[in-house]
Amino acid sequence: MKILKIIFANALRHKLRTTLTILGIAIAVIAFGVLRTVVTVWDSSVDAAAANRLITRQAVSFIFPLPYAYKEKIKNVEGVKEVSFANWFGGVYKDKNNFFTRMCVDADTYFDVLPEFIISPEELENFKKERNACVIGQEIAVQYNLKLGDQMVLEGDIFPGQWEFVVRGIYKPKNKNTDDTQMLFHWDYINERMKAEAPLRAGSVGWYIVQIENPNDAAEVSEKIDALFKNSSAETKTETEKAFTQGFVAASSAIITAMNFMSFVIIGIIMLVLANTMIMAARERTREYAVLKTLGFSAFHIIGLILGESLVIALIGGGIGIALTYPIVAGFEQAMPKGFFPFFYIEPITTILALSAAIIIGILASIFPIQRALKTNIVDGFRFVG
Amino acid sequence: MSSIITVQNVSKSYWRNKIEIPVLNNISINVEQGEFLALMGPSGSGKTTLLNLIAGIDKPSAGEIIINGTVISSLGESALAKWRANNVGFVFQFYNLIPVLTAFENVELPLLLTKLSKAERKKQVETALTLVGLGDRMHHAPKQLSGGQEQRVAIARAIVTDPVIIVADEPTGDLDRSSAEEILILLGRLNKEFQKTIIMVTHDPHAAESANIIKHIDKGDLVGA
Fold first, then answer.
1. What span, in angstroms and rounded, lies between the C-alpha atoms of A92 and B224?
2. Are A9 and B90 an interchain contact pair (Cβ–Cβ within 8 Å)?
3. Which domains does chain B have, with CATH numbers?
4. How confident is the model over A300-342, as pLDDT tens digits?
């Protein structure tokens, strides 16, 4: 207990220096936590992908559409259970800063193929039977204070004009990483108007979502689908939903890699700050370590004192940092454009990583001062003038 | 009386920038149980080095040191640390108390390395502090004590384990005349009433008068008795 008292008392001997070091560690842990949260949220969209779903898109690029006529052909491929499709709509809801996903989908099949979007049977029925109905995620309903029967008007950009919808369903997410910030409406509604206003753009869908019987057959089924449209004017590329999502994330991989790198650079910098504090502290206590050695205290005790002090500072800083990361991430989410990230929360692994980083920093920062304290013999220790 | 400390043909050199600097030259001393020996000499004469060798915090370059039957000059670092904890009480010129601990806790420090219970440690610490006249200052921090009181705490720390020998390096060197006198009286009591063997380094002739044997060292050689 006396050793613990010495450790804590030593840590607080230079209150200003220790406070600044603790604050430095706390800020670094906050930065680490926020950056890691962004990275994990980005990656979690890949984790949310279902194993039994394939995405069929235009082989040249995702931005080119596919003919609606492909639906029945794909459905007839052996191993395919159900086929749905979607098309990116874009548009603006009230203000261009109100960013959330808006897509026209195959109303008959979409919620069957994506069961992680939970909607009541009555609401689904109402959605299916009304051409300009829409379904929104519960987060969107809360954010924009929308309820069933409310009108939503979108100003189209990809599909020009004003588009009026009625909210007929509000879906709930099945999992924590299910996106509940989407607005989904009838592809037919958009397609009919396209037929009248831009016939060349009618009859096209963005991508097909293919539900398969057995996830183990994904490669085989993908090959069969793509073979169907080989040498056509719109060749396809079929891949698992996970691979498809990874392709999206990969487009931002340089930023994510940089954020990942930065999060660890921050940890490295703060390790140097703590190491500097510990070197100064151990240097000032050279005579005290000599006294303890003289009294018979072993190298083990000296290591315990220095390592203990370093860990106390690192863990207090880490603890404060982790505690503050939660409200800061919440504030960060509020400050971002709505719907920029469909979900934004601190994964338990981020907290574990931050705490582990604090412990590792504490250990590494003590190595040099421990080495120095052990190498200094008693006589030199007593001669030392700090 | 039997020799409790035997220093046989001990030499000590330090190396600085590849140059050997001899500090002690073939020194031999015997100290009997219960003696109070004062080592005197000018600065740099080697008296503190000899004290450090006897106390087991430094090792001789040549020769042998036997304390209470143990050849300490041949012990390894770890064994020497244990030997010091059990056999030597240290009093330094600058007290060297741990500033973040109270007087009680500073005196208790050497006992933390023993198997004594908390109650036994408390009893011994209180006895030691009462003996040095600080029974009413046990829970004061070093900075709340005068220099003389700090040195008395250091003496309590030195005697709390009931060591075979007490080594004191200029114990009055940092004190005013009155405090120095108190410390010398205290060391004298420990020697006479408790038969503690004490070796004290000093260059103060008045302080040396407290000892019953005075030896002089000059340029690494023992020059008188």
1. 103
2. no
3. 34-59+76-224 (3.40.50.300)
4. 999 999 999 999 999 999 999 999 999 998 888 777 665 566 6
